[in-house]
Amino acid sequence: MSIDPAQFRHVLGHFPTGVTVITATLADGTPVGFTIGSFTSVSLDPPLVGFLPMNDSARWAQIDGSGSFCVNILAADQGELCWRFAKTSIDHPFEGVPWQPSPITGSPLIDGVIAWIDCRIENVVEAGDHVFVLGRVLQLEHVDPATDPAPLLFFRGQLGDFRVLS
Ligand SMILES: Cc1cc2nc3c(=O)[nH]c(=O)nc-3n(C[C@H](O)[C@H](O)[C@H](O)COP(=O)(O)O)c2cc1C
After folding, report:
1. Dist. CA 166 → ligand 1 center (Å)
2. Domains of the chain in sequence order
3. Which residues surround ligand 1 with Cβ inside 6 Å?
4. What is the pLDDT of residues 48-74, one digit of tens each?
């Protein structure tokens, strides 16, 4: 039975995700990054995380070439960054976005994220029209829990935030 791509997208859109911007710094110092919802924790020992970019993504090709990346987990008030880093029409998405180099790989660590994970690319596995990127975690941190961090969430094509059910 063949699966209709529109229905595939629609049904899978019912699985809510967090929102990350995965970044790297090119050899000439240019920051690159794109919005990724398929980020996941993979392994504790060794420490691995993963995500799935399109295999023909220009930005993935740049990040792949850099050999490393930083995962920026967006906060609920960073919805504008989610759309900005998903648009191929924006050539310089970092314009006006404050960031610092991450401690190990020097990839952009965007101000205001609720957590970040600095990684070296460990392996890239073909996965249909995407690739599965495995990253070896080199360093990671989250914001002070006392600041009550709120994540940005994506569900059925829309952004939202997290609510604790009592
Ligand atoms: C919330 C959200 C999550 C996304 N997650 C992914 C993802 O997991 N994998 C992917 O390939 N594209 C994902 N995208 C789309 C990419 O951000 C977009 O296609 C990419 O930036 C285009 O890069 P390119 O110019 O290199 O093709 C997502 C977009 C949004 C808005």
Report:
1. 34
2. 5-154 (2.30.110.10)
3. 19, 34-38, 52-54, 57-60, 82, 86, 88, 154
4. 999 999 999 999 999 999 999 999 999
Q: Residue 9 burial (CB < 10 Å; 0-12/13-18/19+)?
A: exposed
The single residue listed with the structure tokens 């935030």 is: 161
Q: Tell me what pLDDT residue 1 has.
A: 80
Distance between CA atoms of 159 and 154, rounded to whole angstroms? 5
pTM: 0.97
Where residue 23 falls (left for φ over 0; alpha for ψ -120 to 50; beta otherwise) is: beta
Ligand 1 mean position, distance from CA 146 (Å): 31
Contacts of 8 (CB under 8 A, 6+ apart): none
| Beta strands 20-25; 68-73: pairing state | antiparallel
Instruction: Say how far apart CA 7 and CA 25 lie, in whole Å.
Output: 36
Tell me the β-bridge partners of 76.
none
- Cβ proximity of 25 and 108 under 8 Å: yes
Q: What is the pLDDT of residues 103-155, one digit of tens each?
A: 999 999 999 999 999 999 999 999 999 999 999 999 999 999 999 899 999 99
> Can you tell me whether residue 95 is helix, strand or coil?
coil
Q: Is 7 helix (H, G, I), strand (E, B) or coil?
A: helix
Quote the mean pLDDT of the chain: 97
